[in-house]
Specification:
This protein is mainly alpha-helical. Helix content is 55%, strand content 4%.
Length: 111
């Protein structure tokens, strides 16, 4: 998914449309929440990995505040779309696969 196409603002969604793939709006919300958590964890790992390059045991207070590269990396991640919005776009673009315990794997269409 191209994250540049994900809206940066929350938009109003039709509940009936969201509930169609799962047959229940609450199931759809759970699928979206779990996917958003996956995205957030992956982004956090990636950010921590990039910031780890700048870490040293002897950072002085001045070095911490003057590290422009680290600040730019952090700002880049702040400007990215929120994980919940990315999950919603994936859900609506039929890119998510989920499974309900005791049932088989479903694609976005619930098949």
């Amino acid at each position: 998914m191209d994250r540049k196409k994900v809206p940066s603002n929350t938009i109003t969604r039709d509940i009936k449309t969201l509930s169609q793939p799962t047959g229940n709006i609450y199931k759809s919300v759970v699928v979206l929440a779990k996917r958003a958590n996956q995205i957030a964890l992956a982004e956090k790992k990636e950010l921590n990995r990039k910031l780890e390059e700048f870490r040293s045991d002897r950072d002085t207070l001045e070095e911490v505040f003057e590290n422009r590269e680290q600040i730019e990396i952090s700002k880049l991640y702040e400007r990215q779309p929120k994980p919940s919005l990315i999950a919603m776009e994936e859900f609506q673009a039929d890119e998510l696969y989920f499974r309900v315990a005791g049932e088989g794997v479903h694609d976005e269409k619930g098949e």
